[in-house]
Amino acid sequence: MRAFTIPKAAGKDGFAWRGASGFPPFLRRGGYRSASAAGQGAARIAAGLAGLPAGAVPRMHLAKGSYFACTGRAAFDRLIYPVPEPGGLGIHLTLDLQGGMRFGPDVEWTDSPDLRVDPAKAPAFEAAISRYWPGLPRGALVPAFAGLRPKLVGAAEPNADFRIDTQADHGIEGLVQLFGIESPGLTASLALAEGGAMR
Ligand SMILES: Cc1cc2nc3c(=O)[nH]c(=O)nc-3n(C[C@H](O)[C@H](O)[C@H](O)COP(=O)(O)OP(=O)(O)OC[C@H]3O[C@@H](n4cnc5c(N)ncnc54)[C@H](O)[C@@H]3O)c2cc1C
């Protein structure tokens, strides 16, 4: 497989494929396969592809996940995962490369790309963490960072699997599209690449 970047065009969405008639020939030459793996942007890119049937563009939902760091010395030397909650793995403990403790992510359904962590969430995090670490010092949590999960289903629906669309799904030769690659997408990345390449 060969990775490349398509330069942004001057179009409204800055995307070179928009308005092209059919899949760009230069991507077909040489038997290349082209993978669209744009996370939150995947559906928008699909919607901008000429020749793709409307049914091949999924509706995407966003579930924000916030993290808090815990000040002070690390109390654990391993990860701690509670029982998963709907939409996410539960507020678990991960250790950063310096051994610092980070707790998260929670699940907040949203339409906004705002990645700020709301400090007012600290009490809810304390309550969740205290269930497996009763010794959590009060006031030790500080907002860290957040991410947005690109979800194929909304809040009230059961979890969906990753979606790998190929010619059989959308009719365009050589095009692989990945949708809903949320957690554990990093862990599964090699298998996803293999799955996309083998189909
Ligand atoms: C809060 C949270 C916690 C997570 N925890 C874990 C975990 O513990 N373990 C795990 O395995 N996974 C985890 N994940 C999931 C993991 O981060 C994703 O599965 C992984 O990042 C998906 O990789 P990707 O390359 O498909 O998409 P992304 O990493 O989202 O990359 C997509 C890229 O496409 C670009 N792009 C988007 N639109 C356009 C466009 N129109 N034009 C050009 N470029 C575009 C974006 O800028 C971005 O660089 C977590 C995700 C979140 C949000």
What is this structure, in a nutshell?
The chain is an alpha+beta fold.
Describe the fold and architecture:
The chain has 199 residues and is α+β, with helices and mostly antiparallel strands. It folds into two domains: 25-59 and 156-198, no CATH class; 61-151, D-Amino Acid Oxidase, Chain A, domain 2 (2-Layer Sandwich). It contains five helices and eight strands. It has helices spanning 25-28, 42-47, 122-130, 167-170, 189-198, and strands spanning 34-36, 61-70, 92-95, 101-104, 108-110, 141-151, 163-165, 175-179. The strands form two sheets. Strands 2, 3, 4, 5 and 6 form a five-stranded antiparallel beta sheet that branches. A hairpin with a 5-residue loop joins β3 and β4. The protein is elongated. The model is unreliable at 1-22 (pLDDT under 50). The protein binds flavin-adenine dinucleotide. The site of flavin-adenine dinucleotide has 20 residues, from α2 and β6.
Question: Strands, helices and their partners?
Answer:
Blueprint: H1 25-28, E1 34-36, H2 42-47, E2 61-70, E3 92-95, E4 101-104, E5 108-110, H3 122-130, E6 141-151, E7 163-165, H4 167-170, E8 175-179, H5 189-198
Parallel strand pairs: 1-8
Antiparallel strand pairs: 2-4, 2-5, 2-6, 3-4, 7-8
